[in-house]
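Example record

One chain of 352 residues, shown exactly as stored in the release files.
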Amino acid sequence: MSTPQSDASVIVQMTGGLGQLTLNRPRTLNALSIDMIEIMLVALRGWISDPDVSAVLIDAAGDRGLCAGGDVRAVRESLIGGRPDEALHFFREEYALDLLIHEYPKPVVVFADGITMGGGIGLAGHAAVRVVTERSQLAMPETRIGFTPDVGGSLLLARAPGRVGEYLGLTGVSMNAADAIWAGFADQLVPSDRLPSALDALRHRADPGTPMELLMLFDETPGRSRLEDAREWIDDAFSRDTVGDIVQRLREIGGEAATTADLLGEVSPSSLAVTLSSIRAAREADDLRAVLEQEFHVGAFLSARPDMAEGIRAQLVDKDRSPAWSPATIADLPDGLGEEALAFRAPTALFS
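Predicted structure tokens for this chain:
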């Protein structure tokens, strides 16, 4: 998609019955700021009662991706500056946006073209029609920054086939279009060069067909997912009780599984333990609202620990890729950390 000629962080427009929200910070891979979130909330709430809007599209400026995640640098500044309430406010508004997209009374279409990670999954993963392209890279890489999959991502992971959700959530590895559709993170593959025509059709459709039916005119059948091919060893290892047990089994299996064990050794051990418990708890949850509430409290638990600020520093601020985790290794994890995170309560509830 081309870059709109505007300085606004989100371009809000309406054409032919289509309300369109275009993320417009391509230099930051459209990382979500609190201002962007609030602009989208206002627009979406206003369109609910607007009879001229029959559907909504969320897309992005630039060709690199829909959204690389939330603006976690700003969250880190709040945490190290002793202003945790600011961080909780960011998450509260972000989760409200994700829930609004999920519960929206009109069809919401999202073009998850290119990099779509973290907060980008919150926008794309809960929409009525989730479109990926051959350039798509979807991931929940929060364990790499000492955090845990949120924005309802733990529910999407919990609903993936077998134990693929635990694998994706703990490792943070990227999915291509075929992976995303197979794992339940996307619905349709539309080649990127067809997106302009698909957008035009959404804007000017003359038939009463749904956006899903309309986009079927432009989609292609994805190839076989590599995740499906790897599911046997993924299910074997990631069904184990603890992170330590998972790593041990991965090394016993060998090959690609052993390489995955090495990858787990690089990310925050605390985040791994909390993420494992979070995904498994989400598997028993009733709905997205309940999962977002759980994620809010779990996130507050991790935000109060040192790994999140340290992980953001190492990955995104200093970029030395050498975080000093606490505890440092999976072997040093205290028993029951995941359960402790699930029992933690932030100073306020997410939804009043």
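Notes: The first strand starts at residue 10 and ends at 15.
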